[in-house]
Amino acid sequence: MRVGVDVGKVRIGLARSDPHAVLATPVMTVQRGAGDIARIIAETRDSDAIEIVVGLPISLAGTDTASTADARGFAGLLARAVEIPVRLVDERLSTVSAQQALRASGRNAKNSRAVIDQVAAVIILQHALDFERSGGTPPGVVVDPDEGP
Predict the structure, then answer these.
(1) Distance CA 81, CA 129 (A)
(2) Over 119-133, what HEC string results?
(3) Less CB within 10 Å around the terminal CB: N or C of the chain?
(4) pLDDT tens, residue order, the chain (149 aa)
(5) Does residue 91 belong to any structural domain of this protein?
(6) What is the CATH number of the domain that holds 21?
(7) For the chain, how many helices (H) and strands (E)?
(8) Domain assignment of residue 149, yes or no
(9) Distance of CA 33 to CAs 7, 10, 11, 110, Å?
(10) How many domains does the structure of the chain reveal?
(11) In whole angstroms, what separates CA 103 from the centre of its chain?
(12) Is the dihedral of CA 129, 43, 76, 142 positive or negative?
């Protein structure tokens, strides 16, 4: 089982895989701030996760965005707080894809903000699962808990 995380400035979307790492499903949205790391840790323990996959928001050109440092910092905090690997993976267009999927299902963005974060986490995790299954190696990079501030 793996847990996917979409880190936002206000909310954090969580998803998890099935035990065979084939399908990602939404779990919850966590408010960003006090207790957010503890809630994610509780979810990883409850689901017996072996890895946390955190989306890394980079531009279409492959360069850092304003949110890239925030996601790296959050992943670092998470890596220092858990005993399982935390992996950063490219999340280009995950939120856009989540918004499009919700619109296609008849939901509007304003009333679906919390759900968008969960769907984005599902997209991030599903991409990572599919990539690993097709190529045999996991995508992205494992966060070194000893690096960073």
Answers:
(1) 23
(2) HHHHHHHHHHHHHHH
(3) C
(4) 999 999 999 999 999 999 999 999 999 999 999 999 999 999 999 999 999 999 999 877 777 888 888 999 999 999 999 999 999 998 865 555 656 665 666 666 555 666 788 888 999 999 999 989 888 888 888 998 887 55
(5) yes
(6) 3.30.420.140
(7) 4, 6
(8) no
(9) 11, 8, 9, 22
(10) 1
(11) 21
(12) negative
